[in-house]
Amino acid sequence: MLAIIDYRAPKSVINSLSNYVNDILLFKSEGITYNSISGHPDIFIYQDKLNLIIAPNSPTTLFDFLNKHKVNFQIGNSNVGNQLKDSVQYNCLSTEKYLIHKSGFTDKKVLETNIEKEFLNIPQAYTRCSLTHLKDKYFITSDKGIEKELTNLGCNVFFFAPDEIKIVDHKNGFVGGTNGIKNNKIFFMGSVTKHQDGEKLIKYLEHLKFEIINLGNDFLYDGGGLFFV
């Protein structure tokens, strides 16, 4: 198993992650998008159970890493840029039934790949940053607008306050950017127990039969998610 993580993630997190994977790409871009998200994989990569779609202007290190390990991927239509509109095209989330994103902001290749799914329009364009899909209709989010939309659809949504989530250049990050899931394991960049909602989230995850792996001992870090390939 391979992992892609923000190069600015705490060293303790990266060191712990190395115990679970065969190789790690410390993701970094320069001069492409906002500094706060320049190391976030979820700005350049769309991933679901079957597909990996990469922004065409992603750093060459990402292409080299995937090619080195013979990982299949597609190249998207949209370049990542330095405005809201062009920094969110790949930051969407897919379930078995839905493609979840803000309408008008999604890369064309991602839309084509999910043509058979229902498009769920939500108010937050940084969707994957703000949302973690656990299984079936179970989610975690730090965005009230997303919580409302999904709850209205009958989904079970755990709201995890953005307070105390660290991120570069901003006061608070988002819960979707703090974690990654592989099989029944959910990996957090930091320790969920440090957060005010931590103990409640632990019970919620354990009820869903997830194994929780805290990769650090400090507050959670929003690094644009952990991508396992």
Query: Helix proportion of residues, in percent?
Result: 10-25%
CATH architecture: 5-stranded Propeller
Mean of residue pLDDT values: 97
Helix/strand order, N-terminal first: EHEHEEHEEEHEHEEHEEEHEE
Q: Report the count of strand segments.
A: 15
Query: Percent of residues in beta strands?
Result: 15-25%
What's the CATH topology name?
L-arginine/glycine Amidinotransferase, Chain A
Strand numbers in spatial order across the main sheet: 2-1-15
- Count the DSSP helices: 7
> What structural category characterises the helix and strand content?
alpha/beta
Oligomer: single chain
End-to-end Cα distance, whole Å, is: 6 Å
State the low-pLDDT regions, or none: none
Overall geometry: globular
Structural summary, described in words:
The chain is an alpha/beta fold and 229 residues long. The protein has one domain (2-228): L-arginine/glycine Amidinotransferase, Chain A. It is built from seven helices and 15 strands. It has helices at 11-17, 41-44, 60-68, 108-113, 127-130, 144-152, 198-207; strands spanning 2-6, 23-27, 45-47, 52-54, 74-75, 93-94, 98-101, 118-121, 131-135, 138-141, 156-159, 179-182, 185-188, 211-214, 227-228. The strands form five sheets. A three-stranded mixed beta sheet has the order 2-1-15, with helices on one face. The longest helix has 10 residues, at 198-207. It is globular, with a radius of gyration of 16 Å. The termini are close together.
